[in-house]
What we know:
This protein is an alpha/beta fold. The protein has helices at 3-10, 58-68, 96-99, 105-116, 121-137, 150-157, 195-206, 236-256, and strands at residues 26-30, 33-38, 45-50, 73-77, 142-148, 164-168, 185-189, 215-218.
Amino acid sequence: MTNDEHNKACCSLPPVSSSDYTPQGTFEVIAGLNCYVVGPKDAEKVLVCVYDIFGYYPQVKQGADLLATQGYRVVIPDFFRGKPMSSTAFPAYSSPLKAFPSLKDEDKAELMSFITHTANFQTRAPDLLSIATALRSTGAAKLGAYGLCWGGKLVILSAGAFDAIAQIHPARMDPKDAEGVNVPIASYISDDESREAQEGLREVMAGKAVGGVCDFQWYEGMHHGFAGSRADLKDPNVYKNFQDVYNRLASFFKKTL
């Protein structure tokens, strides 16, 4: 994707709000899950956002609201049924990956239990597939998905249900996950993800028919979570990159859906 193609989609996105943000969406039940929903109800192009382990943060909802201004209906299912991972043990606006070694033993145990049970990929994947099926049955002609952190892994594992997918600072990034993927992929990583793994993903996708429309970006200087719950939008550099990553998402989905 050239810079010109990227910028054409960027220009119409409104600026990010760095102060207290009021989400624009509402909640409704889809496929048995409570979902944050924003954008036109009759939209034929629908995006599913898979949040990170900390659930519904204002920054996550604001990202969805930005994409909805492009005419998409954006849906954020509550995979954790109102019980996300508590963020109290993690320093605000910082990488949870870097914070993990310094956590107390009980906090580490809580996180590992959450990942093993509540956030288990094999358990949550059927939820995502049910959401995709329900959205297609109610009018979604084109369906995209993007995942933040934990959600980035779940999205690529469920890629067959969508027409295009994106990973933003994904957890447990593995190029092998893309071997069976035949839809366009966007991969946006921070300093805390492996550039080698991203390059491996690029190489896997380059050999596929959709390779020419895939998009890859390394956000140098950014931490894991900068586009989701760990985003400090009062920090000018984070603000700039938060705006840019959602601009890139808008451009990517505009081209692939």
